[in-house]
Design a protein that fits this description.
Shape: globular
Structural class: alpha/beta
CATH class of one domain: Alpha Beta
Helix content: 25-40%
CATH superfamily of one domain: P-loop containing nucleotide triphosphate hydrolases
Strand content: 15-25%
Strand order of the largest sheet: 6-7-8-3-9-10
CATH topology of one domain: Rossmann fold
Length: 256
C-alpha cells in the first residue's frame, strides 16, 4: 500500500505556471531524489505538500485520508498534514534566541503538546543522532552552517514524520560543510525514513536515492531508479540536463 499519493497538483504565480499537474505515488521507505533545472517547481512541490504554499488544485492522500491541498478552510487537515511531514529548509530557519535543544523541543511542545520532560528526552536523542549532542546548549550564532543544518534535521526528525522533505539542504553551506550534512542524510536514509530530497548534488542523489524524478517546466518528465535515470534517460530534456551537469562537474567551460 502506498504511503502518499499526490494527484493533479497545480501551482502558478500570476501567469507563471510552476507546477502543471504533478501526479506522484510515494511508497513507504522511498527516498526520492528530485532533480531538474532551477525555477522548474522542485522546491514549490515540497512547499505545497507542507502547506507553506497553497496550490490552485491538488489532492494528497496520506495514510488513506484524502486532503484537499487547495482548501484554506480545513485547519484540522492542515495540522494533520504538518504533523506527518517534516521540512528541512535551505536556510536552516532556526530560532536565533533559542538553543539547539530548545529549537528541537519547540515543535514537540507546541504542536504535539508533549511535556517539557518528554520533549527534552526526544530532542536529546535526535541531537545525538545527528552528532550535535555536545552543542545542545549552544545558540545558532555560535554554530557553523553545517551544524545549524544538522540541528534543523534533528528538529524535523523529532516530530517522527511519515514523510521528510529536504529542500536543497546543502545549498547555503560552504563547500567544506556540505559533507557533514550529506553524511547525516545518508545515515537517516539507511534507517528507513521516507524522503523527498531536492538537490543539485547529483552524485549524492544518485548514491542515496532509490528513485529519481526529473522535473522540467512543472511536469515530471522522467521517473525511475537512479541507474535508469542517470545511465539511460528516456526523455531528451533529461539527457540534455544531465549532459550539462556532467560537463560542469568534469571540466569548466572557461578558465581564468
Amino acid at each position: 500500500m502506498s504511503l502518499i499519493e499526490i494527484k493533479e497538483l497545480h501551482k502558478k504565480y500570476n501567469d507563471n505556471v510552476v507546477l502543471d499537474g504533478i501526479n506522484l505515488t510515494i511508497e513507504q521507505g522511498n527516498i526520492i531524489g528530485i532533480i531538474g533545472p532551477s525555477g522548474t517547481g522542485k522546491s514549490t512541490l515540497l512547499r505545497c505538500l507542507n502547506q507553506l504554499e497553497i496550490p490552485e488544485q491538488g489532492i494528497i492522500t496520506l495514510n488513506g485520508k484524502e486532503i484537499d491541498l487547495a482548501s484554506k478552510k480545513n485547519k484540522k487537515d492542515v495540522l494533520e498534514l504538518r504533523q506527518n511531514t517534516g521540512m528541512v529548509f535551505q536556510q536552516f530557519n532556526l530560532f536565533e534566541r533559542k538553543t539547539a535543544l530548545e529549537n528541537v523541543e519547540e515543535g514537540l511542545i507546541v504542536v504535539q503538546k508533549k511535556s517539557k520532560e518528554e520533549a527534552k528526552k526526544i530532542a536529546l536523542e535526535e541531537l545525538k543522532r545527528v552528532g550535535m549532542l555536545n552543542w545542545a546548549n549552544h545558540y545558532p550564532r555560535h554554530l557553523s552552517g553545517g551544524q545549524q543544518q544538522r540541528v534543523a534535521i534533528a528538529r524535523a526528525l523529532a516530530m517522527r514524520p511519515k514523510l521528510l522533505l529536504l529542500d536543497e539542504p546543502t545549498s547555503a553551506l560552504d563547500p567544506e560543510m556540505v559533507g557533514e550534512v550529506l553524511d547525516v542524510i545518508k545515515q537517516i536514509a539507511a534507517e528507513g525514513f521516507t524522503m523527498l530530497l531536492v538537490s543539485h548534488e547529483m552524485a549524492f542523489v544518485r548514491n542515496v536515492s532509490n528513485r529519481v524524478i526529473f522535473i522540467d517546466k512543472g511536469v515530471i518528465v522522467e521517473d525511475g531508479t537512479p541507474k535508469q535515470v542517470f545511465n539511460n534517460p528516456q526523455n531528451e530534456r533529461t539527457k540534455e540536463f544531465l549532459a550539462k551537469m556532467h560537463m560542469l562537474e568534469v571540466e569548466p567551460e572557461y578558465s581564468i
